[in-house]
Design a protein that fits this description.
With about 130 residues, the chain is mainly alpha-helical. Helices cover about 65% and strands about 5% of the residues. It has helices at about 20-45, 55-75, 85-120, and strands at about 10, 15, 50, 55. It is elongated and about 60 Å long.
């Protein structure tokens, strides 16, 4: 069947027999990732509070897990895996660029606001 959907995730490591099973499998995967985020957000382990590139390791874990969830939602539920390679690259690289750009802006502006609160004076007047 030319229009049949691929019924595996993790590049073929987990295979399903029907679309319904695959939807439930992806739902369970996304639920597990969300549960990990919630547990980490509630308990905030002290060992994950170490600073890495200006942010705590816990914040980086949240960002990475959110990107993983967005990837799987796009890949499976929006059928991105069935598209041509050029279209997939165009969508993925645009998204990667925009995510990196927004992270850079948020970190820069957040660092500036934090320095205002810490030092108590404005270094730039926009």
């Amino acid at each position: 069947m030319a229009d049949a959907h691929k019924l595996e995730i993790f590049r073929g490591l987990v295979k399903f027999k029907s679309n319904t099973q695959k939807i439930w499998g992806v739902l369970i995967l996304l639920t597990i990732v969300t549960a990990i985020e919630v547990v980490l957000g509630i308990y905030k382990p002290e060992m994950l509070m170490a600073k890495v590139l200006g942010m705590s390791l816990l914040n980086w874990i949240f960002i990475i897990l959110t990107i993983v969830k967005a990837y799987y939602i796009t890949w499976d539920f929006m059928h991105m895996r069935d598209e041509t390679a050029a279209f997939r690259r165009m969508c993925v690289w645009t998204g990667v660029f925009l995510i990196c750009y927004i992270l850079f802006i948020l970190l820069q502006e957040g660092g500036y606001v934090e320095s205002i609160f810490t030092n108590g004076f404005v270094t730039h007047d926009f």
